[in-house]
């Protein structure tokens, strides 16, 4: 069903279909801007939310970290894996490099191809939920397909261990 989907969500749906995904997108009645909001709306655990966080590398390249909902990204680990320092990205950088607004950044279809790191913790689930280009849209995806869709490197992204 595509009724009422935003242009960016339709773009995500098309990319999913091209990759062999069902293209199923769930429209949320309430915002899914935070992992907790999305989990409550979907009815899953916060850990099953694959949140997309954009950083800016020292070189100016966008860096996408797809982290499990409760995990706080350890920027030192990401910088080490990338091979250069990273910093926070402001809303303008996120919009320009991804084509999405903060709160709805999909892990695919970015305007500027980012370096991608996938949280190892996401691989513990059969299905995770990722933003579909809008704060009210998400899609289910198997973690192995998420890795293939993003060409992301799987690493431990949080400082919890």
Characterization of the model:
Helices cover about 25% and strands about 25% of the residues. It has about 160 residues and is of the alpha/beta class. Strands 1, 2, 3, 4, 5, 6, 7 and 8 form an eight-stranded mixed sheet that branches.
Which labels suit this protein?
161 residues; alpha/beta; YbaK protein; eight-stranded mixed beta sheet; globular
Residue stretches low in confidence (pLDDT < 50, at least 5 long) are none
Number of domains: 1
Rounded radius of gyration (Å):
14 Å
Question: According to CATH, what is the topology?
Answer: YbaK protein
The mean pLDDT is: 94
CATH superfamily: YbaK/aminoacyl-tRNA synthetase-associated domain
CATH architecture: Alpha-Beta Complex
**Helix content range:** 25-40%
Task: Furnish the topology, listing elements before pairings.
Layout: H1 7-18, E1 26-27, H2 35-42, E2 49-57, E3 62-68, H3 75-82, E4 86-88, H4 91-98, E5 115-119, E6 128-134, E7 137-141, H5 143-150, E8 153-155
Parallel strand pairs: 2-6, 3-5, 5-8
Antiparallel strand pairs: 1-7, 2-3, 2-4, 6-7
């Amino acid at each position: 069903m595509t009724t009422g989907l935003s242009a960016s969500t339709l773009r995500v749906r098309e990319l999913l279909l091209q990759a062999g995904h069902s293209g199923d997108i769930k429209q949320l009645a309430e915002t899914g801007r935070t992992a907790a909001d999305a989990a409550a709306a979907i009815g899953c655990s916060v850990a099953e939310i694959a949140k997309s966080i954009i950083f800016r590398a020292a070189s100016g390249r966008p860096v996408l970290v797809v982290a499990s909902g409760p995990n706080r990204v350890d920027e030192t680990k990401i910088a080490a894996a990338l091979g250069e320092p990273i910093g926070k990205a402001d809303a303008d950088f996120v919009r320009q490099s991804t084509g999405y607004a903060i709160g709805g950044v999909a892990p695919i279809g970015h305007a500027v191809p980012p370096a991608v790191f996938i949280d190892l913790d996401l691989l513990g689930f059969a299905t995770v939920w990722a933003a579909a280009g809008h704060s009210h849209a998400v899609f289910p995806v198997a973690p192995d397909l998420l890795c293939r869709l993003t060409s992301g490197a799987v690493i431990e992204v949080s400082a919890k261990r």
